[in-house]
Amino acid sequence: MGSTDSKLNFRKAVIQLTTKTQPVEATDDAFWDQFWADTTTTVQDVFALVPAAEIRAVREESPSNLATLCYKAVEKMVQGAESGCPTEREKQVILNCTRILSRILPYIFEDQDWRGFFWSTVPGAGRAGTDELDDDDGARPLAESLLLAIADLLFCPDFTVHSHRRGPDSVENMQSIDSCEYIWEAGVGFAQSPPLNYIHDLNRTELLRLLLTCFSEAMYLPSSSDNNVLNPWVTFFCSTENRHALPLFTSLLNVVCAYDPVGYGIPYNHLLFSDYREQLVEQAVQILIVTLEHDGGVPHRTPSPSSMEEQESAGPENLFVNYLSRIHREEDYDFVLKGLARLLTNPLTQTYLPNSTKKIQFHQELLVLFWKLCDFNKKFLFFVLKSSDVLDILVPILFYLNDARADQSRVGLMHIGVFILLLLSGERNFGVRLNKPYSVHVPMDIPVFTGTHADLLIVVFHKIITTGHQRLQPLFDCLLTIVVNVSPYLKSLSMVAANKLLHLLEAFSTSWFLFSVAQNHHLVFFLLEAFNNIIQYQFDGNCNLVYAIIRKRNVFHQLANLPSDPASIQKALQRKRKSPDVISRTSSQETVSMEGSHPAVPAEPGTLKTSLVAIPGIDKLTEKSQVSEDGTMVSVSKGDSTHTAHSDQTAVAGTSDTESNSGRENEDVFYTESEMERRRLSSASSTSFWAPTQEWVHSWKCKLPLQTIMRLLQVLVPQVEKICIDKGLTDESEILKFLQHGTLVGLLPVPHPILIRKYQANAGTAMWFRTYMWGVVYLRNVDPPIWYDTDVRLFEIQRM
């Protein structure tokens, strides 16, 4: 039978299914076998031959036929898992059932009345006629039978793994197989690397695609702050019911971290054969990020012995999370970190031969995986920061942030990159590592500079703030918090970076910017705090910053004398209406960008993006810790306000002055971006919204931490002016030389304790990650388009 004939038969069966008003008996094998008998269909064929409208029609008009089709397909999968698919024909049946279920499941999930179908036991659906299914198995919900069958099939010799058979007559029994001996790739907990077999890779990819589709029920539930809704598919698959949980987790992690897209360094290698391993790696990383969910979205904390008993009864432990949190060998950490760094750096590597290296597209999934590793395994986080290897993660993140800054369809990528840097910046070692000289020179659309990784970070952040799109404003607090967190450890900023920081202060301290939004003054507090940290703790190497502060001293004097009378406030706000630009682009001395770099560009028209929920304010995202003399961190309670240089007495708005509650009293309500936009516009138009007052300006102005800088200016400005007059100097190198050897010991106020704002998990960020991650999965699975045009509720799909 030719392939077109068999496709016709398949299509004919689909039409019969939609047109038959009478239920087809489950025992009518001749009818049902048409759906999986064909030997030549691909997953793309199945999507083309089973149109959405027809699936919905069967669902509405002959529900029992849809139910039987699902049941029969699962039954075939279960039989294949039991027999081990010894013949080619059986393997083909399994693949066809896999494709049909991948096609149908989203339409089951989008209808509330059907969502429970897979979790019910199917009463008498042809079960009387089939003796293969044991009684105990007969009582399993369809979803459980399907998930267990997929797990078994992922370790099926000669189908998805290499056979270990000794001779032609010996058979490997599927029930007694020890799947830990069949892990797909060497790495964590497994030493042998099985030979590559692209057929196995293809079959694994198809099964993982179905698994991902099973897990995607999460997309059809609206985003809510109630994170305790567990995904039943993930919960069951990652429980002790799945005897392959450990080898499968290990296989997925190892396949991802061992992947080298460049293919042994041969240019153009990827053009010669389709890379089946890449498709497998993409599905594997997507399965990992959606299964590694906190139980019920509750932030993961190592239980104390007293809470151990409650832990037991608190519901099933997700084994994937459990295994991830228990990885502990240095060589395993090294394997994972090197693998992720290699893959994240891949899109940055430019060779002189165009298209000669393969560029991977799944960097967003890799960033989520890196985040989850650091979040669930604190020892891994410390390992990352122990050496300068962390910089191999930092540089690609800064590259992505810089590259995506003008593209509104990539706002999620901007957030995950900033969240990772915020998490890292809470650890002292991160700031210390940033002092390593930066010499890689990845082509980036930023000014050329000579300096350290700290300089790179500051220059990129400046570029994001001054030339990014409007939607990035909620991230400004996070960006500057990162700068404050690392500032006490920065040994010597370059002149370029020092000027960028002062340009930000200049832009943020204009009266119209300070008076136009209730939280804008926090940005000034963050910058002053960073300057104070550097002056107090790293004065010796930072003559460039001190010189830049002296040159821009009028900015500090203007801040100290900021007029707050009603007339001045009005005048400032009128100036704002004339220049609607967020931040003045002037006086930033834009220099030539690096050679070979491309400017950041907006999204192409027509680009699809998925909406995100709003992120909590910086005060909800972080908790304050004070660094004590011996370098350990002590958490600062919210009530204790004496610790900072600008003691955080509660301001008028009812929040401390460096933190924002930016209208998020109702932070349990999650808004999609379009709703946020509507709210912003309506609140901007209603005049009663918010207006700056003299009392309000005074409430925070009196707390500006200017003492240290004013003292520095008082001591150094006369000395610098004297040198200039005495030597007739206009040459900055002489002044820098003087500042380098100058000292302020005993002249500055007593150093304040270092205050670090550490990232803290909460329900808001957990929900943000869930919507972001599923949005990425939705957009990346376009061939076949698994969820396209189904009624997804977790996010909105928007066209740019």
From TrEMBL:
It comes from the Eukaryota. This is HID1 domain-containing protein. Residues 573-605, 624-674 are annotated as: Disordered. Pfam families: Hid1 (PF12722). InterPro entries: Hid-1/Ecm30 (IPR026705). PANTHER family: PROTEIN HID1. Signal peptide: none annotated. Residues 584-594, 628-639, 647-661 have a biased composition (Polar residues). GO terms for cellular component: Golgi medial cisterna; Golgi trans cisterna; membrane. It comes from Perca flavescens (American yellow perch).
